[in-house]
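Key result, reporting period 2: structure in, sequence out.
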């Protein structure tokens, strides 16, 4: 490599980072790949990135020297301490006006702090939500950039080129100051927590209430995915329910009913409480995950608390009508989840925190 050749440098070569780099290269940009474990750089260049407009760096100086001015650096590393460590590591090599973009699931107060601290050092910081998972990163994510707005003209071309498109419009626009981008991503994830809990409850009603098999429930979700409930979450629920283990039985029946969480749903609920906003559905979805985590207590309780039915315990009504009603109930509940997320965003927007949050959130979900 001789001289600055890369339009952007990306640090963090897990699947999300690799897929974003490949997406950028497919859209005509030259990207420099870098990673703490340098061997991953060579492995990436010799395999997935081979033949594309992607270069690699083996040390900090080589990485920095590869970037055109103003340098655009995107971090796809674990949220928290790792982000701060990389920023401190890069700072001695940067010039005034260079741009650092944090694309992880950082907590918005951290992005508030980083924007201010780096602005004082004449470095422009962007905290950007990235939604869509591994496939979205590869073929079109939703991007929610916020922070130092002076950076936006310098990253807009790349971000809007690689973003998913809705009616021809890029699912990416500047969201607002400081941690606004990560705030929108936080609420986006909180709404998804609600969506997933609602889907689980619909599954539970069909499984225990109607006595349907996993295949039959998968058929119901397949049908729903062709109507008003059409969405990525309904689609993958269908696929999971159809998936059989090696012995031919439904894999979902063997999965431990114990859910974890990475924090964004919890942060949404805490922020709602801080603001006095009744975001009840999202909060209950978070608590449901917490409840699932106390498996031993639930198992003990199940031996003492029994479901009592006044009838036969079997559903004896019109099953088709019941499933239609359940579909509408799930649809109505999802609307409530969205409305509560919008309500929280509206409260924050009144304080001037975000700008185009309504457009962004509706595009991303």
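The corresponding designed sequence is given below.
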């Amino acid at each position: 490599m001789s001289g600055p050749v890369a339009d952007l440098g990306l640090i963090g070569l897990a699947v999300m980072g690799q897929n974003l780099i490949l997406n950028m290269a497919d859209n005509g940009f030259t990207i420099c790949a870098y990673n703490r474990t340098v061997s991953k750089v060579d492995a990436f260049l010799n395999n997935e990135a081979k033949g594309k407009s992607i270069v690699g760096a083996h040390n900090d100086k080589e990485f920095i020297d590869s970037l055109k001015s103003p340098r655009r650096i995107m971090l796809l590393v674990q949220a928290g301490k790792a982000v701060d460590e990389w920023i401190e590591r890069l700072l001695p090599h940067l010039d005034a006006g260079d741009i650092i973009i944090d694309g992880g699931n950082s907590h918005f107060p951290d992005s508030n702090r980083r924007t201010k601290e780096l602005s004082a050092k004449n470095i422009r910081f962007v905290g950007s939500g990235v939604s869509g998972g591994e496939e979205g990163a590869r073929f079109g994510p939703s991007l929610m950039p916020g922070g130092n707005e002076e950076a936006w003209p310098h990253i807009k071309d790349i971000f809007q080129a690689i973003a998913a498109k809705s009616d021809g419009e890029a699912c990416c626009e500047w969201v607002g100051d400081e941690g606004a981008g990560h705030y929108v991503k936080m609420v986006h994830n909180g709404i998804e927590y609600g969506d997933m809990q609602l889907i689980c409850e619909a599954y539970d009603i069909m499984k225990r209430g109607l006595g349907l098999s996993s295949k039959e429930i998968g058929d119901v979700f397949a049908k729903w995915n062709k109507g008003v409930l059409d969405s990525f979450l309904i689609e993958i629920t269908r696929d999971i329910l159809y998936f059989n283990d090696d012995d031919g039985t439904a894999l979902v029946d063997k999965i431990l009913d114990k859910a974890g969480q990475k924090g964004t749903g919890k942060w949404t609920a805490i922020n709602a409480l801080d603001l006095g906003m009744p975001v009840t559905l999202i909060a209950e979805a978070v608590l449901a995950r917490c409840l699932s985590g106390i498996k031993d207590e639930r198992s003990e309780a199940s031996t003492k608390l029994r479901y009592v039915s006044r009838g036969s315990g079997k559903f004896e009504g019109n099953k088709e009508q019941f499933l239609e009603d359940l579909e509408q109930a799930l649809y109505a509940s999802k609307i409530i989840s969205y409305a509560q997320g919008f309500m929280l965003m509206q409260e924050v927007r009144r304080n001037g925190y975000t700008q185009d949050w309504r457009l962004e959130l509706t595009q991303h979900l």
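Residues 61 and 335 are 50 Å apart (CA to CA). The longest helix spans residues 319-349. This case is discussed further under Risks and Mitigation.
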